[in-house]
Design brief:
It is a single chain. The protein contains six helices and four strands. With about 170 residues, the chain is of the alpha+beta class. It has one domain: Flavocytochrome B2, Chain A, domain 1. Strand 2 and strand 3 form a beta hairpin. The chain has a four-stranded mixed β-sheet with strand order 1-4-3-2. Bound molecules: protoporphyrin IX containing FE. The site of protoporphyrin IX containing FE has 12 residues, from helix 1 and helix 3.
């Protein structure tokens, strides 16, 4: 029973990694939004971009909001297996593969989690078709689009992870 679960989890992770590696291989290398004037998106505005009635589909990862309407076959209300990523900050779903639960908070992101989330963030930032929209007002960006202390703590976790991986 335990070994079945371990095998299942390992296959799941390998699939996930393979997909990200393949996807990153097709992407450009720009990850900065410096040239784009900062737009701050409210949680309410984002929640209206879940793709209902053929509308735009936006998702947020680590507080960065992307327009992923081009990926309707993944994220759309009817067709998408990944519709639960739309209209919200789905950071944790990129680790769990499941909808974010109400009990979940950004403080719970571990060093291991942040590595996986960052790979997906880069996937969206570098994607040819998905466009950066702005920063989500909330735990990671304030109402003026400035990074919060919590975001800096998460960035520090990522640095620690990268440093540990080098050793
Ligand atoms: C934590 C687990 C997982 C996450 C977070 C995840 C996330 C995603 C996301 C966000 C996309 C859409 C990418 C895009 O916009 O182009 C996607 C597509 C896809 N995923 Fe996953 N996935 C997970 C697990 C898996 C597993 C276990 C498999 C299969 C073994 C899988 C197979 C695929 C395939 C084949 C596509 C592309 C579908 C297509 O192009 O039509 N994923 N995944």
């Amino acid at each position: 029973m335990l070994s079945d679960t371990l095998l299942h989890n390992s296959l799941f992770l390998i699939c996930c990694l393979a997909f990200v590696v393949q996807a990153l291989g097709h992407s450009k290398t720009t990850t900065s939004h410096e040239c784009i004037s900062t737009q701050v998106i409210s949680q309410e505005e984002l929640s209206n971009r879940g793709g209902k009635d053929g509308g735009e589909i936006w998702l947020s990862i680590l507080g960065e909001v992307y327009n992923v309407t081009h990926g309707k076959k993944h994220y759309g209300v009817e067709a998408g297996n990944y519709n639960f990523f739309a209209g919200k900050d789905a950071s944790y779903s990129f680790v769990s593969g499941e909808p974010v639960s109400d009990e979940w908070t950004f403080e719970m992101i571990t060093e291991e989690d942040i590595g996986m989330i960052e790979e997906w963030r880069q996937f969206y930032a570098n994607h040819e078709e998905y466009k950066f929209v702005g920063y989500l007002e909330g735990p990671l960006y304030d109402s003026e689009g400035n990074e919060t202390k919590l975001l800096n703590e998460l960035k520090q976790k990522l640095k620690n992870l990268n440093a540990n991986n080098k050793n």
